[in-house]
Amino acid sequence: MSKQSGRGRVAGLPEWDRCAVMGVVNVTPDSFSDGGRWFDTTSAVKHGLALVEEGADLVDVGGESTRPGATRVDEDEELRRVVPVVRGLAAEGVSVSVDTMRASVAEQALAAGAALVNDVSGGLADPAMIPVVADAGAPFVVMHWRGFLQGGNVKGVYADVVAEVTDELHARVEAVLEGGIAPDRVVVDPGLGFSKDGEHDLVLLAHLDRLLGLGHPLLVAASRKRFLGRVLAGPQGAPPPARERDAATAAVSALAAHAGAWAVRVHEVRATADAVRVARAIEEARTAENAPSASSAEGAR
Ligand code: PMM
């Protein structure tokens, strides 16, 4: 990964001097890595606050599992899961992101205090999404998405995954800008694991510079994903379960931070919070090394 200068700032959100950490609260019974653990409002809010305590800068609240083949929850149920958790966390001063493909959920979450809308469909699943986000003046995560998957991964065929994901994301960014979302409020995300196999995910991570070339802050969401299970398993072994992939996740967080990502989205915050701080310290050391020191400036006079 090569370093791109400047990780950008997202208007409407606090500014961090390093890669931000987005902690995940899935208010679902069936998310692949943590489904069912924070399924009632009280434990979900408590978990979000614990993530902040561990170093999360943002908390991403979702009420619908996006794992391949998951059946969609109905709108009322998604609202019931998400809105009280958003309200509870926002009331505690947390910067909340809402992970939803539904405009109605985004709208009510924003009214309840959410600061950011994270749509894994990049505005494709619900035509009302972009107008709702534009009207609210909210920041918006545009993830690379090729549609709902039913059965095999037929949409995950690429001749050049980096070029295609970059081009398709570029087209979605154009669409959201046309829809009235301000350019300084748009975040891009390669959508690791969405219509992509493990090799695709790794190649995308090897080329974050190309995604940064889109000119928008970049979110990387590798946490506990299948490709990490494959890497850890080796060619013959069985992948470790999702909850045993947190050290691998933190390694990706350090690399993504080093490459210039704006934020990383993770389930287990503590190790990633350490990773992005170390990446920042190394960046600072490089900056100090390149800046003329007081004594050499003296000498030059
Ligand atoms: N992945 C998941 C859910 N939300 N949001 C963004 N922006 N990017 C992602 O890659 C992404 C996401 C699926 O993971 P989970 O079910 O473990 O949270």
Automatic annotation (TrEMBL):
Q: Which reaction does it catalyse?
A: (7,8-dihydropterin-6-yl)methyl diphosphate + 4-aminobenzoate = 7,8-dihydropteroate + diphosphate
Give the molecular function GO annotations. dihydropteroate synthase activity; metal ion binding
Keyword S-adenosyl-L-methionine assigned to the entry: answer is no
Q: Where are the transmembrane segments?
A: none
EC nos: 2.5.1.15
Alphabetic keyword roster: Folate biosynthesis, Magnesium, Metal-binding, Transferase
PROSITE patterns linked: DHPS_1, DHPS_2, PTERIN_BINDING
Kindly list the biological process annotations in GO that this record carries.
folic acid biosynthetic process; tetrahydrofolate biosynthetic process
Q: State which pathway it belongs to.
A: Cofactor biosynthesis; tetrahydrofolate biosynthesis; 7,8-dihydrofolate from 2-amino-4-hydroxy-6-hydroxymethyl-7,8-dihydropteridine diphosphate and 4-aminobenzoate: step 1/2
Which InterPro entries does the annotation name? DHP_synth-like, DHP_synth_dom, Dihydropteroate_synth-like_sf, Pterin-binding_dom
Name what cofactor the protein needs: Mg(2+)
- The broad enzyme category this protein falls into is transferase
What GO terms fall under cellular component here? cytosol
Residue intervals of the Pterin-binding domain = 19-277
**Pfam families from the entry?**
Pterin_bind (PF00809)
Concerning SUPFAM superfamilies, the annotation shows: Dihydropteroate synthetase-like
Q: Which PANTHER family match?
A: FOLATE SYNTHESIS PROTEINS, FOLIC ACID SYNTHESIS PROTEIN FOL1
Family statement: Belongs to the DHPS family.
- Tell me the function of this protein: Catalyzes the condensation of para-aminobenzoate (pABA) with 6-hydroxymethyl-7,8-dihydropterin diphosphate (DHPt-PP) to form 7,8-dihydropteroate (H2Pte), the immediate precursor of folate derivatives.
Instruction: State what protein this is by name.
Output: Dihydropteroate synthase
Source organism (scientific name)? Streptomyces cyaneochromogenes
State which gene encodes it. folP
